Amino acid sequence: MADPATYRPPAGTIPTEPGVYRFRDDNRRVIYVGKAKSLRARLSNYFQDVTGLHPRTRQMVFTAASVEWTVVSSEVEALQLEYTWIKKYDPRFNVKYKDDKSYPMLAVSLNEQFPRAFVYRGPMRRGVRYFGPYSHAWAIRETLDLLIRVFPMRTCTKGVFNRHHQLGRPCLLGYIDKCAAPCVGKVSRDEHLEIVRGFVSFMNGHTDPVTKMLQAAMNEAAEELDFEKAARLRDDLEAINKVMEKQTVVLGDGTDADFISFHLDELEAAVQIFNIRAGRVKGQRGWVVERPPAVDDLEANDALAVMLGEFLLQFYSDMAERWAEDRKNSAAVAVETPGRLAAIPRDIFVQALPIDHVELESVLASLRGGPVRLHVPQRGDKKALLDTVEKNANEALRQHKLKRHGDLTARSAALQELQSALDMDQAPLRIECTDISHIQGTDVVASLVVFEDGLPKKSDYRRYKIKEAAGDGHSNDVASIAEVTRRRFLRHNSDKSAVPTEDEFDGTRFVDEDVEEFSVDPKRFAYPPQLFIVDGGLPQVNAAQEMFDELGVHDVMLIGLAKRLEEVWLPGEEDPLILSRNSPALFLLQQIRDEAHRFAITFHRQQRSKRLRYSELDQIKGLGQQRKADLVKHFGSVKRLKSATIDEIQEVPGIGPKLAETIFASLRSRGEA
């Protein structure tokens, strides 16, 4: 048995969206399937103190060796996907029904003179059409109760049907128009069969014709001023929408298709494929693969198109070969083109068309034995479903990275490889990285992130406003790197020589107009990094090295990481250091650099938003940042400040009569202009 702590996902890595999760054992067998409105909230319950778990749940988490999940767009999606996977995997820890025959299904007895719809659980019988399975019988009854408003087919047993036929009057459902009452001849057999065919077609996923028909009939009744009929049709339409809630797992036109999506970074790519049959998700697969070197020099969209083309050709060629091998080895299978047609669908939806998509469609058509079309959906249900597939690809790649990043063995290997590659005396247990963010030289900021033992230490993160390198409206990334390096290690030198007194420390952060310190411990920042990373190539590294020489910093290793080709640059070296693409060390450097970039972007957006908020007050003499903030806070917005009188402006603390007149005159003159 595995300890749940050994496969517990790291804190904060589980998404908060609805989804379906699967626990697997050591042999990768699915032992439990569940759904959740919030995956994070639900899965966290399994990793609490095991003594508080139900005995069966406790046995399940100790039997499991891993947990995985699929993100969906709604709770209804999660419910239907849970049904599908419970039936597919038959997990040993999911609740079994007492008769242990099957899960409840919605059945339609097509072998009767007047077919009926009913809840059924048991072995399948000839002449009966089944829909499901469902986890709960009440879900079927609720669905059936809503649908018979639109499709008033028979739902009663044979005994009830015969009794009301002898009585010559319908049951209650017949009186309230939830049954066409074939028992008393209100409809003929053919008319009732037409109702049944509509019901079956709807349950097969062809919902669009029904909703369009009801919408048109409702509009027509309203135009004819038959408001009672229009209201009834409106209620029917609401019932249909409630049954088949607009979602991406169920497509109303009964589509047979595959939806494929990639998510790429500089080193790896995640691919997800959803198999849709009769408008419903019948399967899902995903892989994380190394990004091929052939796409390194391509733009993101071109790289995506190339990888999609290669994947489609390889995946469906392998599928066709497996189909042919199964057909050859199975004596029970006759010549059956439909099996191959089912394996490779006619429609394949992707994010972007491969460069040679016409030729690729021809090859896939020959493999399928029928036409194949590649589509890029632009709107509607299919676009929403493809977005869900892409979200799962993104999540798969993120989880793959976090798994590597959170693995103690992998982190240790990465740090040791860095030590060896950089020829350091010891492994860099503390690493700092800085990055610059701006838009055309405005609101230039820098971030400083800290990793210890290969993990982020957010309490030591720093954010800087760059001034010296961005005074003329044109950014100079090299000068900005030099400035932030100088300020960081000036602080390091001063912290080593003296610890701040109480009046220099406000209990939350160091008081500095240009630097926001997140550490609450004034001694922490005195601990130097073994490795300092700058985002950029040789010019940025050399600029940082000049600051090291100026400040006498000789005990810190300095490198630069150029994003385009992931090259490691050392000060003064003409050629970069190239690490293997699947190197744990390169992966760790990439993680640190991406975190620095994220932190810098976040701070830049905050500064830009603040500047835009106060932009109309920037040209008023005598207004500093604090007074601007006080004015906007007092009035709620610059727009309200413009409509204020001089006396009202004077009510703001720190605003005297003369300054209030200046503010009033300046804002009014701009408004008139």
Overview of this protein structure:
The chain is an alpha+beta fold and 673 residues long. The chain has 5 domains: 4-89, GIY-YIG endonuclease; 105-243, no CATH class; 257-399, no CATH class; 423-605, Nucleotidyltransferase, domain 5; 614-672, DNA polymerase, domain 1, CATH 1.10.150.20. The chain has helices spanning 39-46, 55-63, 75-89, 137-147, 158-167, 172-175, 189-203, 208-223, 227-243, 300-329, 337-343, 357-368, 380-406, 408-421, 477-497, 538-551, 584-613, 625-635, 638-642, 646-650, 657-672, and strands spanning 19-24, 30-36, 66-71, 105-109, 117-120, 128-131, 257-264, 268-277, 280-290, 347-349, 373-375, 430-439, 442-452, 455-456, 462-465, 515-517, 531-535, 557-562, 567-569. Strands 12, 13, 14, 15, 16, 17, 18 and 19 form an 8-stranded mixed β-sheet that branches. A 5-stranded mixed β-sheet has the order 9-8-7-10-11. The protein has a 3-stranded antiparallel β-sheet with strand order 2-1-3. The longest helix is centred in the middle third of the chain and has 30 residues, at 300-329. Residues 16-95 form the GIY-YIG domain. Its main location: cytoplasm. It holds the Pfam family HHH_5. Belongs to the UvrC family.
